[in-house]
Structures are given as structure tokens and as C-alpha cells.
Amino acid sequence: MAARRAQRRALPGRSTRVSAPVRVAVIGAGDISDQYLTTLTGYPDVVVTAVADLVPARARARAQAHGIPAWGTTAEVLRRDDVDLVVNLTVPAAHAEVALAAVAAGKHVWGEKPLALDRASARAVLDAADAAGVVVGNAPDTVLGPGIQTAQRLLADGAIGEPRTVLTLMQGPGPDHWHPRPQFLFARGAGPLFDIGPYYLTALVQLLGPVVSVSAVGQIPRAERVVGSGPDAGTAFPVEVPTHLSVVTTFASGTVGTSVYSFDSPLRRQLFEITGSDGVMEVPVSGFDGPTRLLTGPPSGATWTTVPADGAPADRGVGVLELARALRAGERPRASGALAYHVLDIMLAVEESAALGAPVVVASGAPEVPPVPPGWDPAAPTLDAPDRTEQS
User: Fold this and answer.
1) Smallest Cα–Cα separation from 103: which of 91, 113, 95, 93?
2) Alpha carbon distances (Å) from 7 to 4, 11, 158, 251
3) The domain that contains 174 carries what CATH number?
4) Strands 279-282 and 292-296, sheet pairing
5) Per residue in 126-150, pLDDT tens?
6) Cβ neighbours around 235 below 10 Å, total
């Protein structure tokens, strides 16, 4: 196979000092912030200095629970001098607005997925960041975990030959059964495509390259859902987006993919399977680790081999760390804003195709994403040399 390899691209014309840990503020103190803060407060290369939320009391509670010294409103935190990088954990409808405010304040930004809800807003964020000389990174960061990283190295080394087709499945009954506040997961900017799709699509692009067109069919089998747990259990709410989508994807390389994203199946199933000229690869998609399985050999006697994930453990927030290290090195992050824009462009094209009943071209491209280097360890301190400088 002609391996897809990429060199780490430097940020043009930028001189950086490899020194102290990057100072981080988290904006959005909802459920996901607890996972981020648990991880980030354990990394020596970042230090969390503040938490912000629309409800300052919620920010204070989250900050105090994790030993973070400051909290307040978004505007208050963005004015702080001890914040280099903002982690934007707001609801999808606020992603672009908060990111633009952070960029205007001179802060780098890591955003939860999706980057924005439309192309114009997403492009505005990236263009503003370029103009301000700051960097945007974006979830998901599961692609930086040892599971998908191992699969990426195996694929690049020709473990299954040239990729030809890919099949991904994500189906289950939906988060309304367990989430205490699931309404936003069925609103514009969510649903199975925007909520779960980025995990699959980011891995697809990272492993197989950019997408050039999609053809999709979508359904809303139930116009209303009911909250299944928590204080609002039994409350009905409207469904605003398709909860089942079937998608055919064409990659620039010629690889063809088939995907299902569904919140309408009682059967829970996840699958990510690449078929190549010399075998089949099962890519781990549930979390940051998990083994890669390879089916190789002649058709009459092909056998499965399990390859354990190779690399240091990672968790939600590792993308913030990778961005922080990239900033100090004057390099572009792997989970970049450009990659997130392409994934957003694909998802919007899927929506448009389902609405039109016709294929839709994906106009954007995506940068090649090199695997993390051998021995890359999120838990290791690397930003403790205050007198070293690098010129990009």
C-alpha cells in the first residue's frame, strides 16, 4: 500500500518558548467538564487556572471540586491574564460564539465537537484565529488514544494492503433512556450524526484521507422522545433532527464507505471495519484504547490476529494536552481546527443529501494527520525547560 505519511507542519513565522505548562480555562461547567477536569488536572504540562459558566455558582462548584483557584462568567475568565488556552465545553449552539470571544481575547481554543453548526460560523472561527495568531483544536481526541493510533500505524505499514471499502455502524436506543437532560442531544447540532458521528468521521478521515462526496437517507421515526431518568423523567420533548441515517461515503483515495448512525435500534452495536486488498482490519472505536483485529491470509483459510493497543493510556482531554505541547513547539495540533472543519463539512453534506435525496459534494479538504511519535506519554512532564527556544 502507498502509505499516507505526513510531516508535522510548523506554524509559519512563529517563535515559541518551550517552558512552563500551558495555562487553561474551562468554559462550560456541565456534565462533560468533570471528565475533562479530572484528566487535565493530572497532566503536568497543563495547569487549569479557572472555570466559567453561564451560572457562576455552577462554575464555582466545579472549580472547588477539582481544586481550581478561580471561577466566574465567561467574560470574567476571558479577561484573565493567567489563561493561554480556553477549553470550550458549551452546548453546540454556543460553540462558535464562545470560540470567537476567546479568539478576540487572544486565547487559543480547544472546542468540543462539533466545531460549529454551520460552515460560515466555523470558517469565521478559523479565519479569526489565523488573523489573531492563535490556534484552534477540536474534539474528538479519541483518535489520539493508543487504540486508533495503533490501527493507524498498522494501516500505514500495509497490514491489510490498500484500503478499498470501510463499514461503520453506530446504533442503539438513544441517550433519552439514560441522560437526565437529553433534549439538546435531539436538537439541531446533535442527533446521532453530530453527537456520535464525529468520533467515526474523524477516525475515517485520519485513517483514509479526505471525503469528496456523500449520499444519505435520514429518518425521524418518532417526533417526540421522553426523558428516561433524573428529575425530569417522564417529560416529553420534540425531536428536531434525523435519528437514523444511512450514508455512502466516497474518499479522495477512491475508498468507499458505508455507515449507519442510529438512535432507533434496541440493539446496541459499534463497528469500524476496513477491508483492504490483503485483509480486513477492525478498528477500536469505543473509547481511547482497545485492540486492533486483523483478518489476513487466503480466503479459504484467513485467520484473525489481535494486536493490543500500543502506547500510553489516554483519556478525554488528551487533545488539549497535545494542543498545548504543539503550541509550545510551534507546531500544528493533530486534532486541528482544519480537520474539525472537514468533519463538519461532511456532516452538513450528509444532512443536505438526506434532505435533497441526492449526492452532495464535500468541498473542503483535510490535512494529513501523522501518528503520535513512539513513546509519546501524556503523563510525562515535557514543558519544564524555561531557557530553551525554538524558531519555526
Assistant:
1) 95
2) 10, 13, 19, 21
3) 3.30.360.10
4) antiparallel
5) 999 999 999 999 999 999 999 999 9
6) 13
